[in-house]
Amino acid sequence: MNDESIWQRWHEHYSKIGISSEDICRDGIIDYETYIRAKPKILFVMKEVNQWPGGDLREMLHNGPVYPMWHTVARWAAGILRGFPPFVEINKHEVFVESIRSIATINLKKISGQGYANMSIVNAFAFMDRHLLLDQIQMINPDIIVAGGTFDSLIWLLDLQVDPEDPWSRSVLDHRRNIKVIPWRHPGRVDNRETYDKLRDFFQTA
Known about the structure:
The chain is α/β, with parallel strands linked by helices. It has ten helices and six strands; from the N terminus they run H-E-H-E-H-H-H-H-E-H-H-E-H-E-E-H.
């Protein structure tokens, strides 16, 4: 589950096609020991990092969330892990630290962007890297994937069977990997209480 060899494979993959492998931003399980104890195991699939070539999300988040969007992710993770107690019970620093260390998070595009994700470019990278992304997801072995504004990409990446008339209407089971995939929004610029309540309602009706 915690196999670092995948990054060597990514370096080799990018080197062959002329992309600087030094710009890869690593991601995955934030804290291995905490993650393997978590029930359920949650993977947040995001788009890309902003202006951080060569960074490592795991190191950045290891001692707790930084930046507003990661505090939002921590709230959502705490809700899922704790059965969605009242918002006031999870809106605490110590809960944020525990919940962010209990998850994994990956970006579809491993090269950092420039402040606003261009989904055409993100999708192009995801398609180009699809075999490595699938291997990474398999190594993380989550029970639940929360698609942080990436559900449209995950439909084709994971070959999900969705309602074509309303693909975001409900969660979808990836039968091949036995993963529940949640179509959800990106955590940037949200009303934290409102989105926490909406995510709770989504889980209750999914």
